[in-house]
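Hi everyone,

Forwarding the result from last night's run.
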Amino acid sequence: MQLLLKAVKSAVSQRDWSRRHFWGWLNAVFNKVDYERIKAVGPDRAAAEWLLRCGARVRFQGFERWHHDYNGLPTGPLGRYKIQGIDATESCIMHRGFDHLDGLKYVEEIKFNKCIYIEDSCLERLSSIENLQETLYMIEVVSCGNVTDKGIIALHKLRNLEYLFLSDLPGIRDKQTTAGRLQTALPRLELVLDLE
């Protein structure tokens, strides 16, 4: 009986690992950057396709509505629709796909809420994109368990950042020092912390 129980537990454990491995692999495929596609349709359309494929939402300049349906993306002349807002709540975006953000020139706000693949390297990459250093003024990072002080401090490069909301980030170990460094680098920044 004990041998049977052990065999069943092993089979269930392998199946769960296999399922997680499959979804991790699929999410990595969704994040793969297709540079030819970016050239063909432009950076905003390609980035919107990537974000929606991964479960995020986008808002285009001049529109109030958030788009979440990949098949419902607006069509029209190349370059007509510019991404102004990104809501990556519960999406599978990861560092591998952040090259999609390189050509975006109008993004003002980004929300990372419950993004299991967002980590320090993602925030560092985001902060290194020159266009976003100019346009991005609002960021939320909530319940992203892989984000630490290092990733948050990297946001200091976003020189026009005016609002930063941080909540439920267990990787933040020294919130006073992190907050102080951000406030020193970005004196206009409204930093809202909900960290325990």
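The CA atoms of residues 42 and 79 lie 6 Å apart.

Cheers,
N.
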